Amino acid sequence: MDTGGNFLPIIAALPFVGALIPGVMIRAGRTACATYTFMASALAFILLMLSAPAVFRGEVLQFQLEWLPMLGLNVNFMLDGLGLLFAGLILGIGMLIILYARFYLSREDPMGQFYTYLLLFQGAMVGIVLSDNILLLLVFWELTSLSSFLLIGYWKHLPEGRQGARMALTVTGLGGLAMIAGMLILGSIVGSYDLSVILQHKELIQASPYYLPALILILAGCFTKSAQFPFHFWLPHAMAAPTPVSAYLHSATMVKAGLFLMARMWPVLSGTPEWFYIVATTGLITMVLGAVIALFKDDLKALLAFSTVSHLGLITMLLGFGTEAAAIVAVFHILNHATFKAALFMSAGIVDHETHTRDIKRLGGLRHLMPVTFVIVTIAALSMAGIPPLNGFLSKEMMLEEASHTAWLSNPWILPALATLGALFSVAYSFRLVAHVFLGPKRDDYPAKPHDPAFGMWASPAFLVVLVVLIGLMPNLIAGPLVDITAAAVTGGHPHAHISHWHGLVPAFWMSVAAILGGALFLSLHGALERGWNAAPRPEAKVIFDAITRASTRASHWLTDTLHNGSITRYGAIFAAAITAAGLFAWFESPMSAPTREMLPINAIMAIGWVLLVISTGCIIAFHRNRILSLVLLGVIGLAVSMAFVYFSAPDLALTQISVEVVTIILLLLALNFLPGRTPVESGMPRRLRDAVIAGAAGLAVGGLTYAILLRDFAAESISAYHLANSYKGGGGKNVVNVILVDFRGFDTFGEIIVLGIAALVIYALTKSVLRGPGGRWLLNWGPDDDEAGDRHPLMMVVVTRVIMPIALMVGAYIFLRGHNAPGGGFIAGLIVAIALLMQYMASGFAWAEERQRYHYHAMIAAGVMTAAVTGMGSWLAGRQFLTSSYGYIHIPPIEEFEWATAMAFDTGVFITVVGAVMLALHSLSSMSRRTGEQVNIHPMDVDPGRGAAPADGKEA
Amino acid sequence: MTHWIIAPIVLPAVMAAIIVMSMRHHVLLQRIFSIAGLTAVIAIAAGLAVQASTGVIEVYDLGNWPAPFGIVLVLDRLSAMMVLLTAVLALVVTVYAAGTDWDRRGNHFHALMQFQVMGIMGAFLTGDVFNLFVFFEVLLIASYGLMIHAGGTRRLRAGLQYVVFNLLGSTLFLFALGTIYATTGTLNMADLAVRVSEIPQSDIALIRVGAVLLLTVFAIKAALLPLHFWLPETYAEAPAPVTALFAIMTKVGAYAILRVFTLIFGPDLPDIADVVEPLLLGAALITITIGMIGVLGSNRLGRLAAFAVIGSMGTVFIGMSSFTPETTTATLYYILHSTLSTALLFLTVDMVRERRMGSSDGYASLPAFRQQGLIAALFFAAAIAMAGMPPLSGFVGKLLILKSVWPLPGAGLIWAVILVTSLIAIVGFAQGGSAVFWKTKAPEESAEPADAPAEAAPEPAQGLAFTAAFSLLAGIILLTVFAGPVTSYLSATTGQLYQRQGYVDAVLTGPERVGGDAGYGAKGHGDADDGHGETDTHATEEGH
């Protein structure tokens, strides 16, 4: 049945879709959950098998879908021999693991979560091996790291699980990131990220100057994933995961992803000395090192983990040889290792499950208690040791054969010798596994009484062991075709594997014999060897890794906390320094032209104003700790600035400045009431000196900039000429400033009144939340000062403000009305009216005054904004843009001709908002006073009821 | 003539006014109006995006004054996209705030939210630098109000820093605008683009200072080192729904830089680009480094998330600093991604805070909390996205940026920095996540953790909160799945950005301008001698 490649995306997607099932199905029971999870894998496996015949015919199935053309990231899948082998392993062993895990997990373990993670992992893994796009491959690659993180940390209550998960994620994440770089470089060399394209450009890639960096970066990904030295240390710690995970991810599949990628890239990356020396050497070291360490591990899973490391090294080395024959062996061993090692892991899990320990020192003599497990382990371990006729023997023999005629740095002895040594240790630890766990006398101190588990639990390893035997007996029949097509996919040629048990008395035979005999010898000497091993100093990878992560975490803490210590002074200093530096950098990078304007002569008035400004600014710096004094000085500065506006014929600005000044000073005075009178000294002299230098530099820079600007003309004609020319003609007003505010740039004003309104709302909300919090409690206990005036609402002030009130209102109205043609306008008028009201409130108390006004301040602000907005939207009715003004002239007989303008309505909005905002701010401040216990007066003028006389009398007085 | 372009600004403003005026004591009404208003804004924004996707640059002359003399709003692909993004984010955040009762914990939440949206929309749409200043003020003051919403000592202290630092920035904005206006005599962006490109050599120094000052102003908003100091405390202490909305605030800074430094001070002006690009790149590399180190160096989820934002802004600016079409496209994609995933991260952090004992998001081992699995899954997704791991958009964005800078000088350094900091972030997220979600201890009092119905007090509608969070996740997933179409829209956006003559023409002379039915030529105010003529839009029936 030829399906083309259309099944491929479904095969890759099925596990991901299936990952949704267990979380739901767990509610139907554990068996149902496992069954449906199994079905998802099984379905994918069946689809794969349906695609297999085409692959065996030598076809490469493909599926292509564009995802992100700009990046070259496409959803391209392909299935060739290599993909088929791996996908088959992943899905096939996956099904066995799902079955096994059903019996392995206990009732307390959240099984739904487990299967979800497992299927996520399975999908990612299938994705890797089916990808025909290296960026897509990267996506799946990192997904395996993530899902493995979740699986290792599955028992989240165990610290080893959490640490192991983080370590695995860190190491494989590191490799993954390196690989991102490597893959991007590779793609940029070829100009395509599609694997099938890349695989055809061997010469181009190997001739590129970026070949070596790309190679190193990609290999970093492969080595970390496949636990090659010096990244091997994460794998044993990943064994904190439940055993099904160890069996699946950390022996059969995920750790082989690195091997897969090396095999996949073999046609284009291999064959160079760089490849040989990096890959083969790393593999060799890993193989020997892993085997040696494995012999001395007492934890069953640790032993198997290091044995896995060793076997991964073996395969890496074979791939590193770069010859076709070695590649065939590599492929064959991948298959063999997956079968016997997964079986061993599952058996180790059974032992752990039944005896409640994995410590070899506490085991032994289990052969009678657990005969089935014993048989399974023995066959698998013998295969691992390379004992004929099992499948492990076949591939190991072939490996030794390849090693025996490969020279390393033109030395023909090193490689064969070390390979034999690795094999020797491999034999030793395999024998030890059987001898020290199952053989020997029966003990009576097992933590739990061991017996063989239920069939469901040993079914999976048993099935694998049957495969081990069958492949061992009939390699060419069962594994031959698969190895052939896989090797063809790896090498790009048409190799044919001749797998046989007997090659004659070749070097490999003697090496094998030496390994088996030596291994048996080493086992018999195990006790002595172990004492020596334990006595010898050796670096502990976890300790080093932990030290590095802890040190870098601590360094990060330190750096982050030191840099962000919360001091606003410091932040301000950095702000000023950085911006001054950036400005100066920009300024001095280019030549500066001479000024184009004459400086105006300095006359006496200006000089006095200047001196006044300088002195009052200087005084603020000197006396800023006395808050009331600095407020007064602030007022002086404000007035001086207003005078400057007057001097430069800007009456609008002067009016605005003065009224803003008055309002802010009054509000600040009220706020000051709640603050301590003096600012405490918090910084030493050096800090202040530093800040002075920075502030001085920034100030001088700003001054210099202003100076430079003022002495130069516009480089291009300013747009203000248009405003001058069109203010009356187009805007209907003679006061250009006002027309700019309400018409030319009315939208700015619209925004600014909203700012003002929001500010008032924020002050209100802020006061409310302060009063709710500890600040409110503090205010409750905050007694008024003793030197408070006896008459809170003095007669004179009340009378004067009453008299002024109508006048002030009239001035406000006048200023408002004349605004369009003469200095004035809604903003200034609003402030003036607000001041008039403020004075009433100050004179007679807030509550007294508030009772006499009918509008809510919130509503006033909103109404002002609405008025402005509605005025703006009104122009839509006329088919014009927002805020398009119109004006005209009305003649009401007794009076003179009278101008109206829509801008006036807008200005009214401004006016209302300003009044509302100021009053709401005042209201908020007064609500704080009232919280302090200030009493509400009934009459407009009275003396403090709290002083002297009884309160009741005081109020009546 | 269409007025839709101004609707995203005016509608929230009016909505806020209505909420303050008539329903400031009715949270339910506020929610209804707020959510309804934002839904309408989304609809309008979507319409605008469709309109902009045709490539026509639409210009709206406020007050019917011709550019450059009045204020213009300009809708192009970029602004339309940002407007839509803001609208969606604002709705999600508002729904979340309503679902968790955050909006009840202080005053004026919804009004401030609407004003905030108005400010952000204005910043994206305006074509006038001074108007941009005004909208920066709007969004600053509104965001301050939102930031200190519900009060609390630490929050108020952080809020003070936020507002002080940003007011310094506003002052600087005025310096920058003063310098630029004093040199060029105009404030309209398109007009500035023309005038800056014709600036005589004698005034280069001044305009350059203006450009750099403007850059620093925007860099403050975008939290670029060393001007980011306001961010960590603010983001860690602000109410999380507000922080989630703030995800777009840093992007306002990024947008402004992108707009101003492609249009006005474009990469084709070597005098300015030579100063700006190295400054930006250097700052970006430091930003991503310090940000990601901060992720590792945090001991609270809120702080971790805040530094993740800084790191992600560093990534944005690495992409932005070289101003080539490829890098800009990649950056735009990353901006979309970063906005959604930052918001998701903060909502998740808030869910943790709300459920953990003592409202703590610290790494200490605390008892497991309600819906821990679901929240852990959300956090995992957000962390993956922020750290740039597959399969979410962070990975795609990172690859796009890496690939786009490859041909540029210094690519090796940039790659190294991005990849190494990614690793640091992965480790940081893994530590934080495993400490909070995995390392739980049994609750001390009740023996059976499952036996919690006694505490099932009437909770706010958490369904709404989860809906909000999951819709952000859905957004991230959609952004990933439809990366192809999205990037092709973004390529077109970039094309439009670098075709600045198109923008200039549209604003100053182009036929696309929304210029009244009389057509552009007839309606200039200065053209007609008689200011009150029949055709004059500002005149009325009665001549003078």
Automatic annotation (TrEMBL), chain A:
Membrane topology: Multi-pass membrane protein
Keyword Cell membrane listed: yes
Span of domain Na+/H+ antiporter MnhB subunit-related protein: 797-919
Matches recorded under InterPro entries: CPA3_Na-H_Antiporter_A (IPR050616), MnhB (IPR007182), MrpA_C/MbhD (IPR025383), MrpA_C/MbhE (IPR046806), ND/Mrp_TM (IPR001750), Proton_antipo_N (IPR001516)
Pfam family, one: MbhD
Transmembrane annotation, as ranges: 6-26, 33-56, 76-100, 112-130, 167-190, 210-235, 247-269, 275-296, 372-393, 413-434, 455-474, 508-529, 568-588, 600-621, 628-648, 654-672, 692-710, 749-767, 795-817, 823-843, 855-878, 898-922
Domain of life per record: Bacteria
GO BP field: monoatomic ion transport
Cell compartment(s), UniProt: Cell membrane; Membrane
Cellular component annotations (GO), alphabetically ordered: plasma membrane
Keywords, in A-Z order: Antiport, Cell membrane, Ion transport, Membrane, Transmembrane, Transmembrane helix, Transport
Domain NADH-Ubiquinone oxidoreductase (complex I) chain 5 N-terminal, chain residue ranges per copy: 71-115
Region called Disordered, residue ranges: 938-957
GO molecular function: antiporter activity
Domain named NADH:quinone oxidoreductase/Mrp antiporter transmembrane: residues: 131-408
Domain MrpA C-terminal/MbhD, chain residue ranges per copy: 612-676
NCBIfam families: PRK12648.1
General function of this protein: NDH-1 shuttles electrons from NADH, via FMN and iron-sulfur (Fe-S) centers, to quinones in the respiratory chain. The immediate electron acceptor for the enzyme in this species is believed to be ubiquinone. Couples the redox reaction to proton translocation (for every two electrons transferred, four hydrogen ions are translocated across the cytoplasmic membrane), and thus conserves the redox energy in a proton gradient.
Protein name: Multisubunit potassium/proton antiporter PhaA subunit /multisubunit potassium/proton antiporter PhaB subunit
Organism: Primorskyibacter sedentarius
From TrEMBL, chain B:
InterPro entries: CPA3_Na-H_Antiporter_D, NADH_UbQ_OxRdtase, ND/Mrp_TM
GO biological process, one term: ATP synthesis coupled electron transport
Keywords assigned: Cell membrane, Membrane, Transmembrane, Transmembrane helix
Domain NADH:quinone oxidoreductase/Mrp antiporter transmembrane residue range list: 127-423
Pfam families (UniProt xref): Proton_antipo_M
GO MF: NADH dehydrogenase (ubiquinone) activity
Broad class of the protein's primary localization: membrane
TM region positions: 6-23, 35-57, 77-97, 162-184, 204-231, 243-266, 278-297, 304-324, 330-352, 373-393, 413-438, 464-484
Biased composition (Basic and acidic residues): 524-544
Gene Ontology CC entries for this record: plasma membrane
Protein location: Cell membrane; Membrane
Region of interest (Disordered), residue spans: 515-544
NCBIfam families recorded: PRK12666.1
Family per record: Belongs to the CPA3 antiporters (TC 2.A.63) subunit D family.
Function: NDH-1 shuttles electrons from NADH, via FMN and iron-sulfur (Fe-S) centers, to quinones in the respiratory chain. The immediate electron acceptor for the enzyme in this species is believed to be ubiquinone. Couples the redox reaction to proton translocation (for every two electrons transferred, four hydrogen ions are translocated across the cytoplasmic membrane), and thus conserves the redox energy in a proton gradient.
Name assigned to this protein: Multisubunit potassium/proton antiporter PhaD subunit
Protein species of origin: Primorskyibacter sedentarius
